Amino acid sequence: MTTLPARAGRRCHNAVNPLHSCIFFSPDLGAELGKIGIEDPSAAYFATRAAALGAVGAGTVTATFYNFNPALVARHVPAVWETAPPERVLGARLRAADSTLRRLLGEEAVASDEMAEAARLALRATEACTPHARPLYAAHAELPVPEEPHLAFWHAATLLREHRGDAHLAALLAAGLDPLESLVSHTATGKGMAPRWILASRGWRRSDWDAASDRLRERGLLDGGDDLALTEAGTALRAEVEETTDRMDTAPYEHLGADGVERLTELGRGFLFTAAAAGAFPASATGRD
Questions:
Q1: How many domains, in total, are found in the chain?
Q2: Which Pfam family, just one, is annotated for this protein (predicted)?
Q3: What's the pLDDT at 283?
Q4: In a domain, 235, yes or no
Q5: Assigned domain for 236 exists
Q6: Contacts of 75 (CB under 8 A, 6+ apart)
């Protein structure tokens, strides 16, 4: 088995994953879903990410998405499938991925040898992904691989994202962090979403956020000041969560090998910098305000 440099898999994930998730911020996705009758932003997100699972109910989405208020999920699921069945949502999602990547990266990058290489490397990494206890990954792994390289790359990025994401939920459970405590503690690291964005998109109230913060303070994980800051114990716990996630997500990157991981990271970062410069991600989504 190839020995990778420390956190090489995480660095690769951090370079590749945003190229999947950028479609959730893209106006192209809203436009494509609007054409099939899905206009509410929350319904659009739930449908887009859950469609690979089939016409599932609110319980399945709540379980696999983890950090959304169950009441918000139930407001839109399963009703969204009456508006558009999963297969139509998947088609709209792929069209949105196509137009979003073309717009953010440019036609030259989409058609480049580098994009084709990135697709080959990312797909090779997915060969070692495993479906057990990974419902979102397993569902997406049954979807066909698109023929065009930029969409094949996006598909592979989706598989790698959900493979790690399913493992991350297990790590959060093991750490004793409930859905909102997970969000609060992540934001407190300085790397998570802004509270305002979380409350608006995840369906929680400010009182829910404050209650979760109080629970973290009672556990000695969040300091007692007005600023959202982790204690030494809180910092250690969040680091443990990430290390545990890394251990459960090692296989794809070990399979790809050190040179392949380094190259995929390099290619992913190049595409990511281009996408970010083109406005792929709203600044308001991150921070502590």
A1: 1
A2: HTH_67
A3: 77
A4: no
A5: no
A6: 42
